[in-house]
């Protein structure tokens, strides 16, 4: 017996309701955008190209997005979520030792950048100069990385000596340094080996974090 089918009026189609199917189509469009924007670029992309890559018609594009910029925002969120998640996973592998957590976070971050060139292209290049809404998203994402840094370093910081606003300012500077290193690394015609890049970023973070002191027992 065949699986249940549904049309767009709200009935089930192959066991999935219309909302689930819409979300599945949206995910396919975002994945297609990551592929297209991350390989040939945002400015040369067309809705037709995105839909062709996703295997969907333009009707379904406009079901989820009101234009290419909205899709760029979704693709940007997708790739930066991956980067941030990799940072937190990498830090977690270091246990309670701050230096190990920092090196683990940096290693995971730079390996994610190296392993999928689409990610840095979208995160560091294609979102620049698009418009105010994308600029605002860039700032929000940067702040989310600041939050991730605070998660990484929090257990080892003397909170009585360094108030939250001071730690956030330091974390903002560290995020800016790492993102700039990553951006210049992927744009370089003769990029350094990844181990060297990680080591350089680690030197910067260690120099700053070494001033914070251990958390009192």
UniProtKB/TrEMBL annotation:
**Ranges of residues in domain HTH tetR-type:** 23-83
Annotated region described as Disordered, given as residue ranges = 1-24
**One Pfam entry name:** TetR_N
Keyword check for Heme: no
- Write the record's keywords in alphabetical order, separated by commas: DNA-binding
- What Gene Ontology molecular-function terms does this entry list? DNA-binding transcription factor activity; transcription cis-regulatory region binding
Q: Which residues bind DNA?
A: 46-65
Skewed-composition ranges (Basic and acidic residues): 1-11
Q: What is this protein called?
A: TetR/AcrR family transcriptional regulator
Species the sequence originates in = Rhodococcus opacus
């Amino acid at each position: 017996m065949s699986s249940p089918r549904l049309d767009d009026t709200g009935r089930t189609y192959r066991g999935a309701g219309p909302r689930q199917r819409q979300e599945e189509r949206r995910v396919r469009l975002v994945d297609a955008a990551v592929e297209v924007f991350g390989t040939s670029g945002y400015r040369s992309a067309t809705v037709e190209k995105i839909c062709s890559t996703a295997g969907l018609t333009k009707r379904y594009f406009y079901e989820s997005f009101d234009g290419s910029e909205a899709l760029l925002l979704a693709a940007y969120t997708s790739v930066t979520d991956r980067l941030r998640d990799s940072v937190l996973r990498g830090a977690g592998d270091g246990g309670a030792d701050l230096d190990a957590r920092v090196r683990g976070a940096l290693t995971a971050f730079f390996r994610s950048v190296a392993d999928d060139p689409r990610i840095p292209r979208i995160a560091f290049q294609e979102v620049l100069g698009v418009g105010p809404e994308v600029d605002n998203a860039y700032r929000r994402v940067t702040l989310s990385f600041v939050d991730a840094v605070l998660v990484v370093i929090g257990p080892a910081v003397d909170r009585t000596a360094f108030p939250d606003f001071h730690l956030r300012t330091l974390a903002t500077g560290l995020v800016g340094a790492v993102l700039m290193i990553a951006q210049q690394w992927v744009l370089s015609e003769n990029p350094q080996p990844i181990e060297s890049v990680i080591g350089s970023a680690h030197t910067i973070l260690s120099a700053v974090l070494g001033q914070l002191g251990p958390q009192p027992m």
